[in-house]
Amino acid sequence: MSEHTASATAALDGRPLVAGRPVEGAAGSLLAVDPATGEEFGPPIGLVDAAQIEEATRAAEEAFDAFRSQTPAERAAFLRRAADNIDGLGEELVDRAVRETGLPRGRIEGERARTTGQLRMFAGIVERGDALQARIDPALPDRAPLPRPDLRLVHIPVGPVAVFGASNFPLAFSTAGGDTASALAAGCPVVVKGHNAHPGTALLVGRAVADAVAASGLPPGVFSVLFGAGNDIGRALVTDPRIRAVAFTGSRAGGRALMDLAAARPEPVPVFAEMSSVNPVVILPGALADEGATALADAYVASLTLGSGQFCTNPGVVFVPEGPDGDRFVDRAARLVSEAAGNTMLTAGIAAAFDRGVRALEDHPGTEAAARGEAGPGPNAPAPALFTVDGDAFAADPRLQEEVFGAAGLLVRHSSAQALAGILERMEGQLTATLHADAGDPGDLAAAHALLPVLERRAGRLLFGGWPTGVEVAHAMVHGGPYPATSDSRGTSVGGLALNRFLRPVSYQGMPDALLPPALREGDPWRLDRRIDGTLVPGGQA
Amino acid sequence: MSEHTASATAALDGRPLVAGRPVEGAAGSLLAVDPATGEEFGPPIGLVDAAQIEEATRAAEEAFDAFRSQTPAERAAFLRRAADNIDGLGEELVDRAVRETGLPRGRIEGERARTTGQLRMFAGIVERGDALQARIDPALPDRAPLPRPDLRLVHIPVGPVAVFGASNFPLAFSTAGGDTASALAAGCPVVVKGHNAHPGTALLVGRAVADAVAASGLPPGVFSVLFGAGNDIGRALVTDPRIRAVAFTGSRAGGRALMDLAAARPEPVPVFAEMSSVNPVVILPGALADEGATALADAYVASLTLGSGQFCTNPGVVFVPEGPDGDRFVDRAARLVSEAAGNTMLTAGIAAAFDRGVRALEDHPGTEAAARGEAGPGPNAPAPALFTVDGDAFAADPRLQEEVFGAAGLLVRHSSAQALAGILERMEGQLTATLHADAGDPGDLAAAHALLPVLERRAGRLLFGGWPTGVEVAHAMVHGGPYPATSDSRGTSVGGLALNRFLRPVSYQGMPDALLPPALREGDPWRLDRRIDGTLVPGGQA
Asked: What InterPro entries does the database record attribute to this sequence (chains A, B) (predicted)?
């Protein structure tokens, strides 16, 4: 790969990136921890102080006008360069990420492909100019009683974005993950709060992106990666007047704290926080008939325990019909969970929180323990767990809707589609909701028709069959949903629409062609699909 | 017109509309006030209590699924029926609005045309399905290493919306104004908090809309108009768990209070508040040359005093070059303002707030009083006022950026385009920013190029020439902008994009055709423009 790549791979010296530049952390350092052994390892990762945070946000603000004035081709080339640089990190990145997260090598490699593929997808979207949503209402000088002025609309980026990555996807939802990729694609400089659970991974990726910034001739303030010991850095970023939007993936408590901080600013800014979901799966009777219960239970436990259950879309709650077919599903799932071994979770804190969540389910008067697997050999590898609960008991206690992050499943027994609708109406917002039904069975089909409107009001993605743990990076993906799944159901953090979160419309009235943004000029120099008087005209034709 | 219209016009009995039904207010009543005389007049308008508010929001929630499942043609017909019913109110509506607001008859008639035209514009947008933004990523069963599932995305409405109308546009920004029209177009039931400054107008329009709801076979919960004496009704609506979004037009204090309430809910919801703007107008030297100063001053004072200055887009702050041409502009504007008479403002409270704002400008050590007109003959008709201030003094005191709602202008003298950029960088967010320049003058053109990025970051609409007080209802209009102009710069309350504020994306994975929303089905039954694998395919072709 390029010299830039070489410098990035050689550079894991633990220095945070303030406006693209490695600096000595002014507030001490931390060490990465191998969750599989509990051992700390170097290099020490520098922590920034308030002045360094401000240096990064100030540089981001100063870089904004230059960054946002790139052509689509330039922006796309920058995003592809960042993807190439991340690919170019090679084995050093994979080794580091595996050691910092305890995730298997194959998973990290797949996640890297997803991460760079995501950057390249946004490059394509930027090139086509979809998100600019250009509109032109030509002047009507002879209109009575008043002439209409020439009006043209385009979307521009909101300004510097603070990104808080997730622990559970150290590449795809972290430093250069969906939030960063979509904010950069929109034209927003990004200040990443690097995740302390994978700081070396964050810095390696950060250098790859910063090198792409430099190689693209952009001001270095376009990208920073900072670390801090506690919550102060988050508070400082979210309340910084130069930060114009916030993206976060993590816990409900953490996301809500950032939402509250952003809403209390003198000048509030939007927060897109992806937080908490138990991803209800509804099984209707037809899906269990003809031995369907066996295959479904196998697929369920595979999804539940995938990656130690550390997915935002983990199927935490499954609604299973009462009766013998449902019993068969429960029995089979219980046997599989009891045979499953725990794998290393991301951090000691996450493993401890899992233990607390499982204990709460054990202690709950309404639940029954259906199965418990074996703990893994090392530390932080708690045993998978499965519980059952009666539908009424589930509906009666909102605590049973709380996400237990990890491989803990709750099977809710339901007596009818009607009872189910009543239970689902009382559920919180979700990232996903899944329906297993036999579309050829009239009873199932009627129930599905009745339940879908309820699920639509509660989730960002509805699956028919399958399991929610795969989140395709695609134009039609929604990874979002009503609170507490996210802070704002109108956005998605994965897929082609993700960059729209960071754009706002601006209208130009009577503006001479030379002063208009190129997207709105006569002759359509960027060959964009534009809406003329409300009607879509394909690129280059107006 | 239709019988429905007849029943609406006959119905101004003062009863609020709870789920479309006139009810006796359980919390007393209020009387409308004629601001031109200070006289109260009937009928008494019923105020609702907490139970009636909850009845309205509960009905809105119950109506949601039926309302949102309308076809585009049905929704469009409903919107057009509402428009027809409002037109059908005839002179009774105009008489009542004139008496309640003190606005001239011609203005009310024009505003009515704008209001019904707006409903009809949204009907057209709904018919075309623009806002659904349908996307399809077909399955790739043979993709390695994993097949891709079929993914389809459409936008659905967020749920019941609470609308707080403005006092200054009793039709176009009130009961069936832009917020209500766009929320209904999106498929959201609406609960209007009727404005106490024009309660009879609100009820007449409300009955016209409620009659359209009934005539369209929709559940009556789709539309309610409620009144309350103080802030309790606003608090009750914004914190009601059934309300999923809020739209507001009014004061900065009022909007911020609603934002804070919505953000503090257990389940926060988006607020679109349009609040406060001084709409900076930047005059560059070329625009004043060749006697340009005279025409510009004439147009400025006409815009400043239009409708007693009671426009969100009133040009409150104008930047005028130092030097003789600028002096000529100031002198001419001062003479015109000194000759202008005050007209009746909307309410005694608004007139009093105007007086306080003018006094604060008078008392400010940095400003000079340039002119004061005559007060109008009746009450609540304060004299227009004009002040000047030096650029440095303006930049030094943020209080000088505060909106004085009404015909009070502040002329800021600037020494150069560079000094101007520094001043503008310190301004708050605005609805509009206007540039007057000679596009053929190299100095002006260079200055415009330098200033436009600064203005873009601060405003939702940029004008070249003209005055911001006309807000065209068009596809390319933005009536929005960074805080405090609005609560969220990503939205607009006027124009084709306004309904997008009330929509959220939902993705369907592996869903059988019969269970998909029609917008996403094979064969494109609604003939929508849809994005297939990211590429736009015109309606009916996929």
From this structure: Ald_DH/histidinol_DH, Ald_DH_C, Ald_DH_N, Aldehyde_DH_dom, Aldehyde_DH_Superfamily, ALDH_KGSADH
Q: So where are chain B's domains? A: 3-32+43-275+492-500, 281-464
Report ipTM (2 d.p.): 0.96
**Confidence tier at A4 by pLDDT (50, 70, 90):** very low
Under 8 Å CB pairs connecting chains A and B tally to: 241
Residue among B188, B490, B501, B508 with most chain A CBs within 10 A, to mutate? B490
Over the stretch A480-503, which tens digit does the pLDDT of each residue have? 999 999 999 999 999 999 999 999
The predicted model gives A21-30 an average pLDDT of 97
> Which residues does chain B have with pLDDT short of 70?
1-11, 542
- Which strands form B535-537's sheet, in the order they lie side by side? A367-372, A385-390, A408-414, A317-321, A281-283, A430-436, A459-464, B503-509, B151-157, B135-137, B530-532, B535-537
Identify which of A136, A156, A268 has the shortest CB distance to residue B456.
A156
A188 counts as catalytic: no
A274 carries an active-site annotation: yes
Give the tokens for residue A79. Answer: 């995003």
pLDDT score for A11: 61
Of residues B445, B490, B529, nearest to A270 (C-beta): B490
Distance CA B133, CA A538 (A): 16
The superfamily in CATH containing domain B3-32+43-275+492-500 is Aldehyde Dehydrogenase; Chain A, domain 1 (3.40.605.10)
The number of beta carbons lying within 10 Å of the beta carbon of residue B443 is 13
Contact residues on chain A for B259, CB-CB shorter than 8 A: 263, 268
Q: Which fold has domain B281-464?
A: Aldehyde Dehydrogenase; Chain A, domain 2 (3.40.309)
Contact A320, A296 (CB under 8 A): no
**B388, B377 contact by CB (below 8 A):** no
Q: Say if residues A344 and A308 touch (Cβ distance below 8 Å).
A: yes
Contact A267 B125 (CB under 8 A): no
